[in-house]
Amino acid sequence: MTCASPQNRWQRALAHAMACLLPLLLGLGAAVAPASAQEKVQITDPYIELRTGPGRGYPIFYVAGRDEWIEILLRRTDWFRVRTANGEEGWVQRAQLETTLTEAGAAKAFRDVLVDDYLRRKLELGAAWGQFEGEPMLKIWTAYRFADALSVEGTIGQVQGTYSGTDFWNINLNVEPWSDRRLSPFFGVGLGRFKNIPNASLVSATVTNANLANAAIGLRYYIAERFVARLDYSIYTAYVSDSGTAEYRAWTLGIAFFF
User: Fold this and answer.
1) What is the dihedral of CA 194, 200, 205, 208, to 10 degrees?
2) Three-state SS for 22?
């Protein structure tokens, strides 16, 4: 099959969605999450530095010394907002807090909060590029994880080729048996719709609008913070008539944000 890119509403809408999604992912990556509880810890290093924001680019405005008590208020990725005994509030990187002591006198345990976020993930937004029967393909998806190994995923995509353009959508049930691992395979099956629109310049061009079934296999890799890379391979079956089907193969590589 050869697919093309007629200037239709689907094409413009998908291009706009792709343009808007990546800035959204980057913005959501800085979302604030509450600390597990507001607790006090005691500084054991000579000092810790409080910054005006959650990052090394923000200036240091206050230094808390050894034996001072600070209260942990909330976190943003690997940074924690704290309050000193005299009311100063600022942001401290986790590495500076790992040597502090709890009120019981024990070392404060800081699990990798980013990995905890990954294990508790529920919603996912992603975008990918690839090939659909040798033609350029773009797609965006959103998924909801309702069990440790199960998620439902909705996808819209477009194939841009030489002689026709293809729009499609599908809803899949995905199985991810080792969802707690950094590198995790997944499998999916689903149903949707498929629409192929030939170029108007072609003689006897006919629009194909058909039901669609697909099966997918892929790999997810937890990059860092709230981002996951994803590679998948899919087989699409379009029911183009009562007695006929057309089969297409595709692969995509993309990035997703989870929360």
Assistant:
1) 10
2) helix
Give per-residue pLDDT as tens, 44-89: 999 999 999 998 899 999 999 999 999 999 887 778 999 999 999 9
CA atoms within 13 A on the CB side of 252: 23
> How many residues does the structure list for the chain?
259
DSSP annotation of 107 reads B
Write phi, then psi, for 17 (nearest 5 degrees).
-65, -40
The rounded distance, in Å, linking the Cα atoms of 159 and 137 is 4
Query: Under DSSP, is residue 154 helix (H, G, I), strand (E, B) or coil?
Result: strand
Kind plus residue range of the DSSP H or E element containing 113: helix 113-119
40, 80 contact by CB (below 8 A): no
pTM: 0.61
Summarize the chain as % helix, strand, coil (round to 5): 10, 55, 30
Q: Which of 198-202, 206-210, 215-219 has the highest mean pLDDT?
A: 215-219
Q: How many CA atoms lie within 13 A of 77 on its CB side?
A: 14
Whole-angstrom CA distances from 44 to 70, 100, 151 are 11, 6, 44
Pair of tokens at residue 221: 């890799």
